[in-house]
Amino acid sequence: MIRKVAEYLSLIDAFVGGEIDADEFSGRYLEKFKNEDVALPEESFMVLDGLFGDADSYTDDEKLLASLPAFYLNAEQLKEQAMSAAVELRLVEAREAARSRPPSKTGRAR
After folding, report:
1. Residues 99, 7: contact at Cβ < 8 Å?
2. DSSP-based three-state secondary structure for 97
3. Rounded Cα distance, 31 and 3, in Å
4. Which of 45, 38, 32, 31 is nearest to 89 (CA)?
5. Distance (Å, rounded) from C-alpha 72 to C-alpha 68?
6. Contact, 44 vs 87, CB < 8 A?
7. Among 41, 45, 67, 79, which residue's Cβ finds the most Cβ atoms within 10 Å?
8. Are 30 and 52 in contact (CB under 8 A)?
9. What is the pLDDT of residues 96-108, one digit of tens each?
10. Which H or E element spans position 65?
11. Strand, coil or helix: what is 100?
12. What is the mean pLDDT of residues 4-30?
């Protein structure tokens, strides 16, 4: 797994596992993603970019949530998006790892 992607997964897992709350996750995630200085694999980037939009849409302001429920996310909705992103990132990483493995030798040489 690419180290940078693992760092994002660690942050996501901390949020999903209840170690940090939605406010802390959103702030840390937005800051990390905005200041990323390493190119990420395209598929991983797309997942992380989607979660960036979700983190940016998070609010605990009930008036905002009520005014534009299709845009703003509450803490539980953000957690659901984070869980989905973690699953997708792990799938992407598994596909990448499978592609980078040398072909297996099946059968015996004669």
Report:
1. no
2. helix
3. 18
4. 45
5. 6
6. no
7. 79
8. yes
9. 888 877 766 665 5
10. helix 62-67
11. helix
12. 97
